[in-house]
Amino acid sequence: MKKVIVAGATGLVGSTIISILEERNFPISEIKFLASKNSVGEKIKFKGKEIEIRELKASEFDGFDLAFFALDGSLSKIFAEEAKKRGVRVVDNSSYFRMKDGTPLIVPEVNGKIIKDDDYIISNPNCSTIQCIAPLYQLEKKYGLERVVFSTYQSVSGSGKEALLDLENGTSEVYPYPIKDNILPHIDTFLENGYTKEEMKMIEETRKILGISDLKVTATTVRVPVSYGHCVSINVELKKPFDLGEVRELFDGKLGMVLKDSPKDNIYPQPLYARGRDEIFVGRIRRDFSRENSLNLFVVSDNIRKGAALNAVQIGELLVD
Ligand code: 2RA
C-alpha cells in the first residue's frame, strides 16, 4: 500500500487520475490532493470520503511514496525535484522532463521495463504521441520502421477546461481564433523551424520511446472542434514487405488496441465512441499504393485517459510492482 499524492488535482487530467486510481483500486493507504491556492479548502470525493484540497508546497511531499503530477511544466520543474529530494517517486504529465537524458519516457505496454529502481521522475508522454506508440511498436518489431508521417485531429480537451468553454460558446479565450466551426493547424507555440512544439513533441518523443534515434518522422498537428478524443492518421513506410492480414493481427487485441476496421459496415475509429474508454482504436488500415512497403492507418483514443491519466496510473502500477 502506498501513500499517494495527486498534484494538480482539479484539472481535467488530475481529476481523471483520481477517478482512475479509484476505478483500478490502486493500492493506497493514504491520499492527498494538491492544487493552487484558489482551490484550497474545496473537497474531492475519493472512495466515499471527502478529502480537502491542500496547497501545492514542497513540505506536503514529506512522508509520501508516489505523486502523480498534472501541472504546468514550470511547476513540475520545481516540485518534482522537491518530491525526489524527499524520496517520493513522481509520474509527471508535463513536457518538462520528457526529453531529458536519464528520464524514462514511458508507455507501459511498450517500454515499461526500462524503469529502474532509482528512477524518481518518470515522464508521461504527450497525449497524441501515446496513442500512436503501440501500433508503431508492433510494426517496428515485425517489419522495421523506415518513415512515419503523423497528421493529427486533436480535441479541445487537450487544452484544458477553458478551451471546452471556447468550443461551447464560440469564444477565443484560449486559442487565437474561435475553435467552434473551425480547424486550427496550430497546437502549442510555433518554433523557428516552422513546426509547432506539439509537432516536435510527436517527432522526438516517438523516437525516444521506440529507441530509434534516427527514425524519419514528420508531423502536422491540428486542433478540431471535438470535445474529447484525439485522432491520428499515420502513414508508415516499413523496411520489409507486409501482409495486411498480418498487420491486422498485430493490432487486434494487442497492447491495449482494439481493431475497428470494417469499412463496408461503416466501422472505423471515432472520437464519439472512444470517449471515456481506455482502449486505442485502430482502423482504416490500407496499403499506400503510392510507395513501396507503405500503409495508412487511423488511430483514435481518449486523450485524457490513455493519452494522459490512464497512462500515468499504469506507470504508477509499474512502480508499485
Ligand atoms: C494537446 N497534446 O492536445 C496537448 C495536450 N498535452 O493540446
TrEMBL record:
Keywords from the named record: Amino-acid biosynthesis, Diaminopimelate biosynthesis, Lysine biosynthesis, Methionine biosynthesis, NADP, Oxidoreductase, Threonine biosynthesis
Residues annotated as the enzyme's active site: C127 (acyl-thioester intermediate), H230 (proton acceptor)
Q: Which residues bind substrate?
A: Q154, R223
Looking up Gene3D superfamilies in the UniProt record yields:
Dihydrodipicolinate Reductase, domain 2 (3.30.360.10), NAD(P)-binding Rossmann-like Domain (3.40.50.720)
EC numbers for this chain: 1.2.1.11
Identify the domain of life: Bacteria
Q: Which residues bind phosphate?
A: R98
Q: What pathway, per the record? A: Amino-acid biosynthesis; L-lysine biosynthesis via DAP pathway; (S)-tetrahydrodipicolinate from L-aspartate: step 2/4; Amino-acid biosynthesis; L-methionine biosynthesis via de novo pathway; L-homoserine from L-aspartate: step 2/3; Amino-acid biosynthesis; L-threonine biosynthesis; L-threonine from L-aspartate: step 2/5
Q: Name one Pfam family in it.
A: Semialdhyde_dh
* MF term (GO), any: NAD binding
Q: Which NCBIfam families match?
A: asd_B, PRK14874.1
HAMAP family with a match to the protein in the record: ASADH
Name the family the entry cites. Belongs to the aspartate-semialdehyde dehydrogenase family.
Q: How is the quaternary structure described?
A: Homodimer.
Q: What is this protein called?
A: Aspartate-semialdehyde dehydrogenase
Identify the species of origin. Answer: Citroniella saccharovorans
